[in-house]
Amino acid sequence: RQMEQDLRHAVANGDLQLFYQPLVDMKTRKIVAFEALVRWLHPTFGMLPPDVFIPLAEEINVIDQLGNWVIRTACAQAAQWPCGIAVAVNVSPLQFRETSLLPTIINALSSSGLAPRRLELELTESTLLNQSDDLMRTLSSIRDLGVKLAMDDFGTGYSSLSYLERFRFDKIKIDKKFIQSMSASVETSAIVSAIINLSQTIGARTTAEGIETEEQFDQISERGCNQGQGYLFSRPVAATEIGALIDDYG
Ligand code: G
Ligand code: G
Ligand code: MN
Ligand code: NA
User: What is the DSSP string of 111-152?
Assistant: First the structure.
């Protein structure tokens, strides 16, 4: 398959680019972090979004190589930003199957000089489906470095609550589907409040994803959510546009 060959080539050659979307403090609206979102610069199809090629990268076993590139690049770029601003990196569950994840993180931090607390890893619930000793050890080692752990897309997977009990996350990201149906549904609105309260109980911060309107911002803000992310603040932008965003929201 041509696409498969193209992707192997792109990963080997670094024909990838990181876009960044800001996470803002709900009280001050200042930028506290950027989430790195990978793009593939395909020679004929142009810029491809990750939902098109991450599943393929997982299938053909180049996700470790791709994921390691993302970690190194995100740390190197974030080291150039003001030191109050963190970088969040998405990690595929499959990256925990290989032994290269932890050494890659250690190496990326030391060669960039980025403080470990400025790196946040976003894991999905499916990462914790199989809670092997290896997985728990790797997570503990990452945590021991001072790197932060966030649970991404919270509420879309299964048995979320038992995962939260078993391993303490620094942050819970409430999936955008909840934020976007809050105003139309009393039930969804109650679920969002419950997630925020639960997070506070376990000592985790919360980020609301997919905030597009001032109305959503107000509803989330009232409920005590710590951070927001969404088109209301900014779409994902190229690394070169970050300076201007920090000037506006810094
Ligand atoms: O960039 P976009 O907003 O289209 O992101 C779509 C999906 O791709 C999101 O679920 C996001 O978590 C995922 N994604 C983006 N960048 C990465 C990455 O570097 N690694 C992994 N594993 N997933 C990513
Ligand atoms: O990693 P995660 O699955 O959370 O990926 C975030 C995804 O959400 C990316 O595809 C990003 O482009 C998208 N996104 C970010 N903000 C908004 C928003 O305000 N509205 C919508 N519809 N999508 C958003
Ligand atoms: Mn994410
Ligand atoms: Na998400």
Answer: HHT--GGGEEEEE-GGGGSS--HHHHHHHHHHHHHT-EEEEE
**Cα of 50 to ligand 1 centre, how many Å?**
5
Nearest CA to ligand 1 atom 21: 90
Residue bearing the CA closest to ligand 1, atom 5: 50
* pTM (two decimals): 0.97
* Domain hosting residue 41, numbered range: 2-249
- Segment 63-88, tens digit of pLDDT: 999 999 999 999 999 999 999 999 99
What Rg, from alpha-carbon coordinates, does the chain have?
Answer: 18
CATH assignment of the domain containing 181: 3.20.20.450
Check: complex ipTM more than 0.90: yes
Task: Give the total number of structural domains in the chain.
Answer: 1
* CA 189/CA 208 separation, integer angstroms: 12
Chain centre distance of CA 88:
5
